[in-house]
Amino acid sequence: MSASQTHKLGFIGAGKLAGSVIRGLMRAKFCAPEKIIASEPNEQTRAALEKETRVSVTAENAEVAEKADVIFIGVKPGMVVGVLRDLAPRIDNKLVISLAGGVRIASMEKAAHARFMRALTNTPSAICQAATGITRGSRSTNEDVDLARKIFGIIGVVVEVDESQIDIITALSGSGPAFVYAIIDSLAAGGLKLGLPKNVSSGLAIQTVLGAAELMRESKMSAGDLIKMVVTPGGTTAAGLAVMEKMKTRESLIAAVEAATKRGQEMAKENS
Questions:
Q1: What does residue 233 show for φ and ψ, rounded to 5 degrees?
Q2: Of the candidates 165, 193, 211, which is a domain's last residue?
Q3: Among candidate residues 136, 165, 194, the one where a domain is terminated
Q4: Residues in a beta bridge with 136
Q5: For the sheet containing 95-98, what is the strand order?
Q6: CA 264 – CA 166 distance, rounded (Å)
Q7: Distance between CA atoms of 77 and 106, rounded to whole angstroms?
Q8: Are strands 95-98 and 115-120 parallel, antiparallel or unpaired?
Q9: Res 81 pLDDT > 70
Q10: Best exposed site among 136, 155, 156, 242 by fewest CB in 10 Å?
């Protein structure tokens, strides 16, 4: 039997990120809706998730902990350790995968005797286009890691890293979509400023980023080589790239990833 048939998945917290993972799993038909149970304190969020996905929902974390044998922690980082302490007897020796940035496995292992892992993913998981980094804990088994790979692999790309690198994954993949949305919005704003209708400029900006990313993924060419395919010396692209270099666009994006990583490291200290 497949993992999707033998395991019942539970989500403690079903907000933006955890809700996206659930929606992705349903979209990919990873398992039947009755194989997932999610707890969520917000009644509207709970109702919307149930209506859209038909998974079981509850307001009680304990119900999820008791009924599921693989549990995902989707609450805010500052709440993770407290939630684990409250549920400790119910999650003993179960596989628990935290979706939270800034909470180390060592802190979670002190709170409960579960087999902890971390999975740092992003909201495109809702459409099976996630970028996820997973890391194992001291009690994780190879079977746990294989299962995590199957779950996150069906909703996107998954890589295993050391926990020392997970804050970078949080910044690059977790925060990264927001950085990309800012780029899309800026491209669209440029078109709007110069006279394009808002819907036309926005639609073209979205498709341009989507097409460029797909070409890079399929061709496996480097960014530098793909840039050369577009640039004509003295042409329009060269003029635009010169301004981007002058405005230090590359440096600002690198700095954004660095800042997000640093904040993740600070959160880990706060939640230790």
A1: -50, 130
A2: 165
A3: 165
A4: 117
A5: 56-58, 36-39, 9-12, 70-73, 95-98, 115-120, 130-136, 156-160
A6: 9
A7: 14
A8: parallel
A9: yes
A10: 242
